[in-house]
Design brief:
Blueprint: E1 3-4, E2 9-13, E3 16-20, E4 23-24, E5 36-37, E6 48-49, E7 78-82, E8 93-96, E9 99-102, E10 106-114, E11 118-122, E12 129-139, E13 146-150, E14 153-158, E15 163-167, E16 184-188, E17 191-196, E18 199-204, E19 208-212, E20 215-218, E21 222-227, E22 232-234, E23 237-240, E24 244-249, E25 254-256, E26 266-269, E27 273-278, E28 283-285, E29 288-291, E30 295-300, E31 303-307, E32 310-322, E33 325-329, E34 331-343, E35 348-350, H1 357-360, E36 384-396, E37 401-403, E38 406-417, E39 427-429, E40 433-435, E41 439-444, E42 460-469, E43 474-479, E44 484-489, E45 494-500, E46 509-514, E47 526-528, E48 536-542
């Protein structure tokens, strides 16, 4: 989208056009609504409020967790010893061949191995079933090794120090053509919780590795899964509050897919250490995806974090080393956390629903059209990004910071290393783009360069070079008295640089240098309060805010 200067000041010196106080060309969008979302369970999450204060369009329901789910009387445990041709059960169980069925609520400590067997849970009472895995190895050549057919809810506890493995069949044998359950190595038709201090390795050769038709909570354990399709899936919700998860999936790594209830279909991460490698999305939620904590390392073939409706990041550390698009949802709200992402196409993309970007291929992006947003000057009502805190570093091959609706920055720090192609921009906002706080540095190509809009209250500078600058170029901005404001060391070619900061004073003059070198700690190549050495002046500019 081209930049339309309003009362801008432009200076051309040594091949550089420096513009202060330009608005973008987008038409006004609908007012950006506020954001409040809550996971209604004190073990799971907390309330996070956005910049305005109205409620979110997505209501987040509570989970199935209850105090005492992971506590029990050891004297009441029922021991189950698995052994090919000789499994030993106990009260509340029935053994037939290499299949043991748990038919009553209670606490069961399971150990031993089955080379081609199964543990079934099928209870009709309304109490909890606890499965303590204490050195279990179960494989099955025709179906799922652990199948919860019916229960009020089930808690799988990984005994401290234990190593447990589950391996399912590549091809399942179903009793009829219209039967498709179970479809995961650990499959539950009831609410499921996994916790404990042991380890669990799950190989989902047929479809998913771990799946629940209701809700799924992971609060502990060292869990490693591989799956031909989705790694860990909760239909109603998937909540991770702790533990260590290593997921390698041909489909989505973590997923919630209930599309029938607006209060369900969400993924919430409030703690834990997650290493996610996915053929499609690393995190995929039909409604909302919320990150309140934890440490996430992500490599994704499609979106790193995707929600059809709302993506909210309030904390945690998120490192995305590969994605087609980094963050995508209809509404993106960031109040905290440290995010560093690499995207083949758009870095942050406010776009509608499940666009199937990789499945359809570049250029067939659903409502957004081709790369670059594609909606022209038509902002979509209800689409927005709000950033009030945290750090966000984007390295994007397509648009860096892209909204098919509006955008608001009131706090936080954002560094965009945007595209080299003139068909995309470091910033691409179709609606009103308001900057009233925080730090923004966006560098990229000049063909579709954009700046903060007319309603912005924080001053910014817009540097447009007449020719592309090579990777490694250093740009330094300082006040008239020589005080360094910011220095940027480019990691790839660029021709446009936009910078907004509370330290810029509207009406004040700033000197711009290029070349030279800079040392010290940076955020995505941005050095605050540090100048370059050996640079050459290309002129000065007066900062302004619309």
């Amino acid at each position: 989208m081209p930049v339309r200067p309003s009362h801008a000041l432009s200076v051309m010196l040594l091949g550089l056009v420096i513009t202060a106080g330009c608005s973008n060309a987008a038409t006004s969008a609908a007012a950006v609504p506020g954001a409040t979302s809550q996971v209604a369970d004190d073990r799971v999450g907390s309330e996070a409020t956005g910049t305005a204060g109205s409620t979110s369009t997505t209501a987040i329901a509570g989970t199935h967790a209850d105090a005492g789910d992971d506590q029990w009387d050891a004297s009441a445990e029922v021991a189950i010893t698995l052994r090919d041709g000789g499994t030993i059960g106990g009260v509340g169980t029935a053994v037939e061949g290499d299949v043991v069925t748990i038919n009553a609520a209670g606490t069961y400590r399971i150990s031993g191995s089955l080379s081609n067997g199964q543990v079934l849970v099928d209870t009709s009472d309304g109490d909890l079933v606890r499965l303590i895995l204490d050195g279990v190895a179960i494989s099955n050549a025709t179906t799922s090794p652990v199948w919860v057919v019916n229960a009020e809810k089930v808690v799988v506890i990984l005994a401290a120090g234990s190593q447990n493995t589950l391996t399912d069949a590549t091809d399942y044998l179903y009793p009829a053509a219209d039967v498709d359950e179970p479809n995961a190595a650990l499959f539950s038709a009831a609410d499921l919780t996994i916790t404990g201090e042991g380890s669990l390795t799950v190989s989902g050769n047929h479809n998913d590795a771990i799946a629940s038709k209701d809700g799924l909570i992971i609060s502990g354990g060292d869990i490693t899964v591989t799956a031909s399709d989705d790694g860990i899936r909760g239909k109603d919700y998937l909540v991770v509050t702790g533990g260590t998860l290593t997921v390698t999936a041909g489909g989505d790594a973590l997923k919630a897919d209930n599309a029938d209830d607006a209060a369900l279909g969400y993924v919430a991460i409030t703690g834990g250490t997650l290493d996610l490698t996915a053929g499609t999305d690393a995190i995929d939620a039909t409604t909302a995806a919320i990150v309140d904590g934890g440490s996430l390392a992500i490599s994704a073939g499609d979106d790193a974090l995707h929600a059809d409706v709302r993506l909210e990041i309030n904390g945690g550390t998120i490192d995305i080393d590969r994605s087609y698009e980094g963050l995508e949802a209809t509404q993106v709200v960031i109040t905290g956390g440290d995010i560093d992402l690499v995207a083949e196409d758009d870095g942050l993309n406010v776009a509608g629903g499940n666009d199937g970007s990789v499945a359809n291929g570049p250029g067939d992006r659903g409502p957004g059209g081709g790369p670059g947003g594609g909606m022209g000057e038509m902002a979509i009502e209800g689409y927005y990004v709000e950033i009030s805190g945290g750090t966000l570093v984007i390295d994007a091959g397509g648009d860096g910071f892209d909204s098919n609706g509006s955008a608001s920055i009131t706090g936080g720090t954002i560094v965009v290393r945007g595209p080299t192609s003139n068909g995309n921009g470091a910033i691409d906002v179709n609606g009103e783009f308001v900057v009233s706080g925080g730090l923004l540095l966006a560098a990229g190509s000049a063909g579709m360069a954009e700046t903060p809009g007319m309603s912005s209250t924080q001053a910014y500078l817009n540097l447009q070079f007449n020719a592309g600058q090579v990777a490694g170029t250093v740009v330094s901005i300082s006040s008239a008295d020589g005080t360094p404001i910011v220095t940027f060391a480019a990691t790839k070619p660029f021709q446009s640089l936009v910078f907004s900061s509370p330290d810029l004073e509207s009406g004040a003059s700033y000197d711009v240098l290029t070349g030279g070198s800079v040392t010290g700690g940076s955020l995505g190549g941005m050095y605050l309060g540090l100048g370059s050495s050996g640079g050459s002046s290309v002129g000065s500019v007066t900062a302004a805010a619309e």
